[in-house]
Write a structure and sequence with these properties.
Helix content: 40-55%
Order of helices and strands: HHEHEHEEHEHEHHHEH
Number of domains: 1
Mean pLDDT: 85
Largest sheet: 5 strands, parallel
Radius of gyration: 16 Å
Low-confidence stretches: 1-23
CATH class: Alpha Beta
Strand order of the largest sheet: 2-5-1-6-7
């Protein structure tokens, strides 16, 4: 495991074993989707409800100056993170990503399949973004989405998959988790 992942997991918190006992079948959750869809917010909320540690992949992947971690190093970091007993990993790094590592370890995948227009609106409201972010976001449905769906099919065959297409669907999903009626954390 890399030196950067251990402190981040410590910050994320430890699992509350009593609470996890009611979710014993779900311990490793991936949240993916286009930029500005709300992946991190959903991960934090799921982490609050379930006490599963949250790992925000963007914080680990991007180096100073928004330089990408080299592919082989990124795969090694993910192998170290995925080796933990439980986690919620949020992030979708588009063309830079090495999906197979975390998909093979996941038991649950939540895909925020929001429209490009919705995500663009949310991105404009949240912060200034670089040109490469906008290119990725505006081409996500045509380029990154098909790659993600193929990777899920190839590497996460046994995982439970939840596709949420609207903020209302996310709200209902979180409410089900909080009430304990969902088959997920």
């Amino acid at each position: 495991m890399s030196a950067t992942s251990k402190p981040y997991l410590a910050q994320a918190g430890r699992s509350d074993l009593a609470k996890l006992a009611s979710y014993s079948n779900v311990k490793r959750v991936i949240i993916a989707g286009p930029g500005a869809a709300g992946k991190s917010a959903l991960a934090v909320r799921q982490g609050e409800i379930t006490s599963l540690p949250v790992i925000e992949l963007d914080k680990l992947f991007w180096r100073p100056g928004l330089t990408a971690t080299p592919r082989d190093q990124w795969a090694a970091v993910q192998r170290g993170l995925a080796a933990h007993e439980s986690w919620i990993m949020d992030g979708d790094l588009g063309p830079y990503d090495v999906l197979d590592v975390r998909l093979q370890a996941a038991d649950t995948i939540v895909f925020l399949d929001f429209s490009s227009a919705r995500c663009a609106w949310l991105a404009v409201r949240r912060s200034r973004e670089r040109a490469d972010f906008w290119w990725w976001l505006l081409t996500y449905r045509r380029r990154s989405r098909p790659l993600l769906l193929r990777a899920i099919a190839a590497y996460a065959g046994d995982a439970e998959i939840h596709v949420l297409r609207t903020p209302r669907a996310v709200s209902r999903f979180v409410a089900r988790i909080a009430s304990g009626t969902a088959d997920l954390p």
